[in-house]
């Protein structure tokens, strides 16, 4: 069920891809900035649970900080400038032409080309863990964690859903540490939703609705049936469930992982 869905392709990497590959922004006709991404595709709560490190429920308490990710080199990896001239040849060929200007990308090396944005705006939010559907990462009930997301107040990105202070969510998350995001300095470790909005579920009055229309069922089996029945027709309606339903789907995912590990 984890086939690739090509929402929009772009060059570059932002925050260890935010579980996607995020490229430099481009200006839209209205003057706003648009960030492009390429996400893996998930169709069920079981699916996102299987790739998440933790799955939690709880409210967004506050905005911790905002920062514009300017990228950077991963810790421990030397920066390599493809335009840096080679060391001087001790026995130069007198018939050779002069060396090319080192500020120009040598022929045969494809450059990224100019971008219209220097960085990717990010927002970091404090979330209280009211409950856990999948445990891990040393996180426990009652903890407060930092969740990072594209700052949709500054840019638009297909597949990104804003997290609103005061609202309750069920979130399927993966952790990033400092070495994963050298372009971010205001926070060291934080969590990101898997698959963009596919890892975000809105909780309201006991009803849980996925932010992404891709999520159509609790389990992979149910999703396959729905998608098969809808073949050639309109897409199935997105899932409407409860936190209890998400817990059951997480158990199905955990059981599947145990079976796979035992083989």
TrEMBL record:
Residue numbers spanned by region Disordered: 66-115
KW Signal (keyword) present: yes
Keywords per UniProt: Signal
UniProt biased composition (Low complexity): 88-107
Signal peptide (UniProt feature, chain positions): 1-22
Protein's name in the database: Lipoprotein
